[in-house]
C-alpha cells in the first residue's frame, strides 16, 4: 500500500509528451504544424526552382507597362495606353459594380419569392416554388448565356432605329432599348456650383444625407410625442417636404438638364449606356441567387413558431403588420448567416462575366493581360488576392450587421 | 495564402515534370498518338466534318507530322483550344504541338518560351462588315462596335489602328469564333475583325455570304505557323522540317499523284533527298528514311493542301497571294534539303 502514498514524480520525462494526456494533444499539434510547414516549404521551393530552371521569374513589373487593349465599360478614365494596373482597376470596379447591383436585386427577388412561397394562395405559392426550383437547379453560366442570347436576338440593333420608316423607335423619345444595351438620359448641371460633375453630385449627395438626418429627427420627435400623449402626430407631409423641397431647390439652382441619347453614326451617343453584357450578367446573377435567397427566407420565416403569429393576430394586428413587425425581425436572425454566403457566391460567380464579354477583373487581368504578358502565375495570384479580400470584406460587413440584429441576451 | 502557394506549386511542379521528362518525340512514339492543339472550329483551317473527322489546313500539318513520326496520319488526338487556353495547353505538355492560326511574335517566341517552327500561312488582320452599312474603308468605322476574339494579337492591333487613325470604337470581347459569328450576325456588333483568312472562312459558313464584305485594309502582319515548346530542339526540328518538306514538295513538283513514281528514284538529287532514296536526312532527324514521303503522301504537297482546304475552288476561296512559292512571287521559301 505504500505505493499509493508515494509523492508523484515531479520531473518531466520525454515519454510524457505521448503518454500524458496533458501534453499529448499539444505534441500532435506541433508535429502537424511542422509537417504542414515542411510541405509548404517544399512546394514553394519547388516552384521557385522550377521557374528558375525554365528561365522564368516572378515579377510584377509588367503592371506598369501600357496595356495596349481597349475596354468597353470604364468607370474610371482608361485608354489603350494606360497601364496593365489601370486595366486591372477598371476590371475590379466592374466586378464590384455588378456584384453590388446583383446583391441588391437578388435580395429583393429572394425576399419577395420567399414570402410569397408561404402564401395561402395556392397559385402564388406554387408559382414561386416553380421559380425557385427552375432557377436554382440550372447552372448560372447557362442562365447568363441564355439571357444574353435572348437579349441580342430579340432586341433591335441600332440600325433598326434609323431612317424614315424605322422598325423601332425610342420609348418616350428618351430611352433606347437595343441589343447592345439600354441607353437612358443622363442628368447634368448647366450651372453647377463646381466645375467638375463629380463635385456637383457630391453636393447633391450631401443634401440628401442632410434630409435623411432631419427626417430621422422628425421620427424621433413623433415617437416621443406618441409615448407622452399616446397620439402619433401625422408626419408624412412634413417628411415629404423635408426630402423634396431642398432637393428641388438644389436642382433648380444648379440647372438640372438631361442629355438624351441620339443615334449618331453606328451607335447611340450621349446619355448613359447600360451595356447588354452588364444587364445579362446582373439579371442572371440576381435571378439565380434570388432563388437560393428565397429558400433562406422561407426557412427563416418557418423557424418562427406559429405561436408568435397567433399571438400577434390575437392582439388584432393585420397580416402585413404581423409579417413586418413580428415575424421578419425574428426571422432575420436565421436568414442573415446563409445570406452572407449567397452574397459571396454572387461576387465569385460574377467571374463568369467573360462568357458575355463583360470586362470584369477575370476578363481584364486574368484574361487579356494574362494572355498578352504570359505572366500566368502573377496574374492568378493577384486574382486570388482580390477575390479573397472582396469576400472577406463582404463577410465582415455582413457579420457586423448580423450581430446588430441577433438576439440580445440581457 | 497557403492555398495559393500550394496550387501554384502543383501547377508548376506538373509543368516542370512534363518538360523534364524524356524528349517529346519519345513521348509521342511511346504514346502512339500525337496530341495536336487546334482551334475550337474554324472551317477550312480546323473543324470536324459531318463524320466528326477533323479537316482543314492546320489539321493537315498535324496529320503530316503524325505520318512522319508514327507512320499513321490518323494517329492524332486533336485538342480544341481557345485563344486563351492554347499557350497553357502547350506549356503544360497537354499537347505536343500547336497548329492553331497562331501569330509568330517576338514576345511569344522569346518571353513565353515557345519555338515557332515556320510559317504555314502569311496573313493579316482585316475587317468584315455587313454590306448594307455601306462602309468601304476601315477608316470610316468611327464609333462602331467591334467584335474581337479575346486573347489574340488582333485585340492589340485593333487598339493601335483606331488610335493611330484618331477614331473611336467599342470593343466586344468574345471567347471563340463561333460566338463571335453569332454576335455579329445578331447585329450586336457592326464589325468583326480577325485574320483575313479567318474572316473569309467565317463568311463562307454564313447563309448569305454575299451580304458581307471584307474591307480592303489589312492592318497587321500575321505570320501564322505551328509551334512547339522551347528547349526540345529535336522535336522542333521534326515539326519544322515536316512543314518544309510539304513546301519543298510543291516547289519540286512532288504531288500525291506522282509520289509513288518519284520515290522509285529520279534524276533530281534534291527530290531523292526529300523522299529519302538518297542521303541520310531521316536518320539525322531520328526518324526512318521515308518520313517525309509519308508526310507528303497524306494530303499532298503544300499547294494541294491549300487548294483542298482554303483555295479558290473551296467556299472559303482564298487566293494564294503571299502564300505562293517564292518562284511565283510569294513568300514561301523552304531552306534546302541537303
UniProtKB/TrEMBL annotation, chain A:
Primary localization: membrane
CDD domains in the record: TM_PBP2
Segments forming domain ABC transmembrane type-1: 92-398
Highest taxon listed in the record's lineage: Bacteria
Topological relation to the membrane, as annotated: Multi-pass membrane protein
PANTHER family, A to Z: AMINO-ACID ABC TRANSPORTER PERMEASE PROTEIN YHDX-RELATED (PTHR30614:SF37), MEMBRANE COMPONENT OF AMINO ACID ABC TRANSPORTER (PTHR30614)
Protein name per UniProt: Putative glutamine ABC transporter permease protein GlnM
From TrEMBL, chain B:
Gene3D superfamilies found in the cross-reference section: Periplasmic binding protein-like II (3.40.190.10)
Superkingdom to which the source organism belongs: Bacteria
Domain spans labelled Solute-binding protein family 3/N-terminal: 33-262
GO biological process: amino acid transport
Any coiled-coil regions, as ranges: none
Pfam families: SBP_bac_3
Keywords: Signal, Transport
First and last residue of the signal peptide: 1-21
Claim: Oxidoreductase is one of the keywords in the record: no
Family listed: Belongs to the bacterial solute-binding protein 3 family.
Name the UniProt record assigns to this protein: Amino-acid ABC transporter-binding protein YhdW
Amino acid at each position: 500500500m505504500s505505493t499509493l502514498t508515494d509523492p508523484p514524480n515531479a520531473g518531466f520525462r520525454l515519454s510524457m509528451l505521448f503518454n500524458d494526456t496533458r501534453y499529448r494533444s499539444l505534441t500532435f499539434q506541433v508535429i502537424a504544424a511542422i509537417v504542414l510547414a515542411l510541405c509548404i516549404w517544399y512546394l514553394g521551393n519547388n516552384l521557385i526552382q522550377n521557374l528558375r530552371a525554365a528561365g522564368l521569374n516572378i515579377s510584377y513589373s509588367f503592371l506598369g507597362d501600357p496595356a495596349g487593349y481597349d475596354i468597353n465599360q470604364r468607370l474610371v478614365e482608361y485608354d489603350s495606353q494606360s497601364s496593365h494596373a489601370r486595366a486591372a482597376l477598371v476590371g475590379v470596379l466592374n466586378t464590384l459594380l455588378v456584384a453590388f447591383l446583383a446583391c441588391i436585386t437578388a435580395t429583393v427577388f429572394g425576399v419577395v419569392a420567399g414570402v410569397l412561397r408561404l402564401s395561402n394562395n395556392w397559385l402564388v405559392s406554387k408559382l414561386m416554388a416553380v421559380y425557385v426550383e427552375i432557377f436554382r437547379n440550372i447552372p448560372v453560366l447557362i442562365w447568363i448565356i441564355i439571357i444574353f442570347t435572348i437579349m441580342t436576338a430579340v432586341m433591335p440593333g441600332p440600325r433598326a432605329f434609323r431612317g424614315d420608316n424605322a422598325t423601332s423607335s425610342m420609348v418616350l423619345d428618351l430611352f433606347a432599348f437595343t441589343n447592345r444595351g439600354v441607353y437612358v438620359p443622363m442628368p447634368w448641371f448647366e450651372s453647377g456650383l463646381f466645375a467638375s460633375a463629380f463635385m456637383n453630385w457630391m453636393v447633391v449627395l450631401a443634401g440628401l444625407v442632410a434630409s435623411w438626418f432631419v427626417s430621422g429627427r422628425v421620427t424621433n420627435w413623433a415617437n416621443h410625442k406618441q409615448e407622452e400623449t399616446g397620439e402619433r402626430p401625422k408626419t408624412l407631409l412634413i417628411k415629404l417636404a423635408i426630402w423634396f423641397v431642398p432637393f428641388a431647390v438644389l436642382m433648380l439652382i444648379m440647372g438640372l438638364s438631361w442629355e438624351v441619347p441620339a443615334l449618331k453614326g453606328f451607335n447611340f451617343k450621349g446619355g448613359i449606356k447600360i451595356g447588354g453584357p452588364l444587364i445579362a450578367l446582373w439579371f442572371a446573377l440576381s435571378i439565380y441567387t434570388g432563388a437560393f435567397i428565397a429558400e433562406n427566407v422561407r426557412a427563416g420565416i418557418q423557424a418562427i413558431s406559429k405561436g408568435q403569429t397567433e399571438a400577434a393576430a390575437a392582439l388584432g394586428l393585420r397580416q402585413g403588420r404581423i409579417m413586418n413587425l413580428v415575424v421578419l425581425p425574428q426571422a432575420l436572425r436565421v436568414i442573415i448567416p446563409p445570406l452572407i454566403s449567397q452574397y459571396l457566391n454572387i461576387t465569385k460567380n460574377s467571374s463568369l462575366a467573360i462568357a458575355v464579354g463583360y470586362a470584369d477583373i477575370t476578363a481584364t487581368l486574368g484574361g487579356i493581360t494574362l494572355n498578352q504578358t504570359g505572366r500566368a502565375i502573377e496574374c492568378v495570384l493577384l486574382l486570388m488576392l482580390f477575390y479573397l479580400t472582396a469576400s472577406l470584406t463582404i463577410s465582415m460587413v455582413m457579420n457586423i450587421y448580423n450581430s446588430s440584429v441577433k438576439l440580445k441576451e440581457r | 495564402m497557403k492555398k495559393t502557394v500550394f496550387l501554384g506549386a502543383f501547377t508548376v511542379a506538373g509543368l516542370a515534370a512534363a518538360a523534364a521528362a524524356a524528349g517529346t518525340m519519345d513521348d509521342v512514339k511511346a504514346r502512339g498518338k500525337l496530341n495536336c492543339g487546334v482551334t475550337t472550329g474554324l472551317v477550312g483551317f480546323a473543324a470536324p466534318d459531318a463524320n466528326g473527322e477533323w479537316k482543314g489546313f492546320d489539321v493537315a500539318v498535324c496529320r503530316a507530322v503524325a505520318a512522319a513520326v508514327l507512320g499513321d496520319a490518323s494517329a492524332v488526338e486533336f485538342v480544341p483550344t481557345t485563344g486563351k487556353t492554347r499557350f497553357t495547353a502547350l506549356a503544360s505538355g497537354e499537347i505536343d504541338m500547336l497548329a492553331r492560326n497562331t501569330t509568330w511574335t517576338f514576345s511569344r517566341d522569346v518571353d513565353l518560351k515557345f519555338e515557332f517552327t515556320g510559317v504555314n500561312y502569311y496573313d493579316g488582320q482585316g475587317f468584315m462588315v455587313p454590306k448594307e452599312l455601306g462602309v468601304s474603308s476601315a477608316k470610316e468605322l468611327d464609333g462602331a462596335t467591334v467584335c474581337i476574339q479575346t486573347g489574340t494579337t488582333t485585340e492589340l492591333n485593333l487598339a493601335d489602328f483606331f488610335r493611330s487613325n484618331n477614331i473611336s470604337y467599342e470593343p466586344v470581347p468574345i471567347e471563340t469564333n463561333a460566338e463571335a459569328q453569332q454576335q455579329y450576325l445578331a447585329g450586336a456588333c457592326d464589325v468583326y475583325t480577325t485574320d483575313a483568312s479567318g474572316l473569309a472562312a467565317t463568311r463562307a459558313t454564313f447563309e448569305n455570304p454575299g451580304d458581307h464584305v471584307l474591307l480592303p485594309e489589312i492592318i497587321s502582319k500575321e505570320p501564322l505557323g505551328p509551334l512547339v515548346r522551347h528547349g526540345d530542339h529535336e522535336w522542333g526540328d521534326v515539326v519544322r522540317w515536316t512543314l518544309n518538306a510539304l513546301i519543298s514538295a510543291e516547289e519540286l513538283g512532288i504531288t500525291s499523284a506522282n509520289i509513288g513514281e518519284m520515290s522509285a528514284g529520279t534524276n533530281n538529287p534534291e527530290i531523292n533527298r526529300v523522299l529519302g532514296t538518297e542521303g541520310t536526312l531521316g536518320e539525322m532527324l531520328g526518324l526512318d528514311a521515308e518520313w517525309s514521303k509519308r508526310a507528303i503522301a497524306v494530303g499532298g504537297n503544300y499547294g494541294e493542301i491549300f487548294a483542298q482546304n482554303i483555295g479558290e475552288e473551296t467556299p472559303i476561296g482564298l487566293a494564294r497571294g503571299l502564300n505562293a512559292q517564292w518562284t511565283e512571287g510569294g513568300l514561301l521559301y523552304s531552306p534546302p534539303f541537303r
